[in-house]
Amino acid sequence: TVELRMSARNDVHMTDNPVLLRYNADTNSVVKMQMFVNENLKDVSYEVVTENEMWKQFIHVRLQTKLPLVCELQLEAISDAFQQLRRKIAAGMACFHFQKSSVYLMSSDTDNNGLSGLTGDPTVGELCNMSDSISEGCGKQRGKKKYSARDVDQFQEPLLLFSAKTMRAESSNKCAPVIHYIKRSYTSMRTFVQVDAISMVHRDTKTVRLYAMLVDSLCRNLRLAENCFLEQISSCEGGDIVVSCPQPFHFLPRECGHFITVFYPKNQPDAQLEEERRLLHKQLALPLDCPLFRRGCAFVFSEDIPLNSPLINVHEGLTSSVKDGEVSVVHGIYTYHHYCQDRMDDSGWGCAYRSLQTIVSWFRWQGYTDKPVPSHREIQQCLVDIGDKQPSFVGSTQWIGSTEVSFCLETMLGITSRIISVSSGEELGSKGGELEYHFKHIGTPVMIGGGVLAHTILGVDYNRNTGELKFLILDPHYTGGEDLQIIQSKGWCGWKGVDFWKKTAYYNLCLPQRPRFL
């Protein structure tokens, strides 16, 4: 019997309504859901929805702010300071202002049922679509270029304020203050706690109910930050206590289908957090042979991406047409690197360099490395350093191929690659099975070079019975701006048949292998 429930341990913040799910693997029974009502378990009904339906029905409300924290650098003092901060927020003293609008959300104890700047009783979905300025924050980005084929439907970040009216009401109590004065030396900590909380809200939820959800989400975020502080202090056995500010990260593992928020100490590298990540993998029944919670794996929201940055996952939304074919594509995230980016005119010679940059970006996004995407000159210097090229190669406009790409991956990142060679483009039609296996089990982008051109293969659509095969091609020869619509509609990223490859050209494919570690 498998049971999944909210833990009651002291280090886990309980929900108001803990959930118990029961499933008997031996009898393959239906999942049974129970909730605590008056301290007794009660069966409740539930609805199973697909991941796509969930993303359509729910909006993610993201709250970002910084809150001051001043206390003694000591376990009990830090816990007390966070507890006071959470009590202040839970007492109705918080006020949320949705930026670029006149909408204010306050405690329901205030006037107008806690909603200012709106009339009626709108739902969160209606509020999200009410004006152009708010719609931009909901992932619609009117008049803006799309940075990902799948942007999270996200509300404009509410700004956290503290209600002066509520604070005056609290201070009106006719009580004399009591002061305890203790004279001693101690180490004080002054910092700002970074808050980045996500609330998953159904579109039909009334806006007045959003206040309680934001307060609960904010308090949970503060509990995670508190635990991060306490774990750092607890690990300091004797000697000086050294702590760094907790940083929040949101992860969206494809195996989970929902966000997971984790706080890491700012100055603690990923290498020192392996045990914490391993515990997360075990708790969530996730595989232990690939990183999912390294900083590089964190989800990047569209508004966090700088303008004119390389586009992310430009293949999403494209469909193939192989009858009864099975589609296998790259796992995870990559950025699209192509001609003339980074103020570098490499048109006519830099396609393989750009393909290598796309592959390196994949290893960065998946958390396998924190090394930056290399420039053309750094790639050339790498090949000179290992003795593959002469010193005059650095700064030149000479081509590189699949073999050089594999050399650079191994030297720069410690990544090994498998090379497949074919004598003609037509022969690539017989490699559907090998490529299908690669994208199913390895999932890295594949660099292919032949003649004077290089491309990146992102996936295949293959019918094993008929042998029909199509390739998902990312073309580094594109010279335009970062416009997803043009890239997809003009075929710079798209599904191509075997006839896309030249029959007379000799091709080498570089298949980077994925390391097995956390």
From TrEMBL:
Residue span(s) of domain UFSP2 second: 80-304
Report the superkingdom from the record.
Eukaryota
Give the GO terms filed under biological process for this record: proteolysis
Stretches assigned to the UFSP1/2/DUB catalytic domain: 326-510
Domain (UFSP2 N-terminal MPN-like): give its ranges: 9-53
Keyword Protease listed: yes
Q: One Gene Ontology cellular component annotation?
A: nucleus
Question: Molecular function (GO) terms listed?
Answer: deUFMylase activity
What InterPro entries does the annotation carry?
Answer: Papain-like_cys_pep_sf (IPR038765), UFSP1/2_DUB_cat (IPR012462), UFSP2-like_2nd (IPR049387), UFSP2_MPN_N (IPR058757)
Q: Which Pfam families match?
A: Peptidase_C78 (PF07910), UFSP2_MPN_insect (PF26560), UfSP2_N (PF20908)
Can the keyword Nucleotidyltransferase be found in this entry's annotation? no
**Keywords from the named record:** Hydrolase, Protease, Thiol protease, Ubl conjugation pathway
Of which family is this protein a member?
Answer: Belongs to the peptidase C78 family.
Function statement: Thiol protease which recognizes and hydrolyzes the peptide bond at the C-terminal Gly of UFM1, a ubiquitin-like modifier protein bound to a number of target proteins. Does not hydrolyze SUMO1 or ISG15 ubiquitin-like proteins.
- Name it: Probable Ufm1-specific protease 2
Q: Which organism is it from?
A: Diploptera punctata
Provide the taxonomic classification: Eukaryota, Metazoa, Ecdysozoa, Arthropoda, Hexapoda
